[in-house]
Each structure stands twice: as C-alpha cells, then as structure tokens.
C-alpha cells in the first residue's frame, strides 16, 4: 500500500459528525500543503467497535485525483511558459 505523506489525520481535538453513525467522533484528513480538510467522506470514526467507519483517501481515489490534477497544473505551466517564450521571440 502506498503511503501519502501529504495527507494526515487531524490529531487536534477537532471532531466532526460521522457520516455513518451521526456521532461527533469523526476525525478528518488534512492536506498538509494547504492545511485544509479534504472532502468529508475521507476520515475515520473513533467508535471502532460500534461504527467502524474508516475511509482513507487512497481507497476512495482522492490521492489519484490530486496527483492527476497536479500533473495537469504543471503541464499547463510548461505550455504557458512555452507560449510566452514564443511570443517574446516573435516580437524581436
């Protein structure tokens, strides 16, 4: 299983309402780069013996979507820099 170091469970005393059981014992994942929560369906309920909800981002496809988004954003930067370079050379 691949480990995602840019995501982590929020270890502070911030609990949210669990999407499965409705109790306020749910811990969400945080994107370390932006310091923001990822979508609410990715997290873990602390009521392991009763609820057991655990949906990590690598299971639901979030990690793959983010990697594709970042690759697209980098490719867009490269294309824009090439367009800027070609427009500068045509002005000469």
Walk me through this protein's architecture.
The chain has helices at residues 57-60, 62-91, and strands spanning 7-9, 26-31, 36-37, 43-45, 54-55. The chain is an alpha+beta fold and 92 residues long. Strands 1, 2, 3, 4 and 5 form a 5-stranded antiparallel sheet that branches. The chain has one domain (7-91).
Find the count of extended strands (DSSP E, 2+ residues). Answer: 5
Give the termini separation. Answer: 53 Å
The mean pLDDT is: 80
What general outline do the C-alpha atoms trace? elongated
Fraction of residues in H or I helices: 25-40%
Number of helical segments with 4 or more residues: 2
Order of helices and strands: EEEEEHH
Assembly state of the chains shown: single chain
Contiguous uncertain segments of 5+ residues: none
Biggest beta sheet attributes: 5 strands, antiparallel
SS-derived structural category:
alpha+beta
How many structural domains can be distinguished in the coordinates?
Answer: 1
């Amino acid at each position: 299983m691949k480990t995602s170091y840019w995501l982590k469970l929020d270890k502070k005393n911030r609990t949210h309402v669990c999407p499965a059981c409705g109790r306020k014992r749910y811990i969400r994942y945080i994107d370390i780069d932006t310091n923001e929560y990822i979508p609410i369906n990715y997290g873990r309920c602390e009521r392991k013996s009763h609820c057991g909800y655990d949906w990590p981002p690598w299971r639901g496809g979030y990690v793959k979507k983010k990697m594709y988004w970042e690759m697209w954003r980098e490719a867009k930067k490269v294309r824009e820099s090439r367009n800027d370079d070609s427009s500068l050379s045509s002005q000469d």
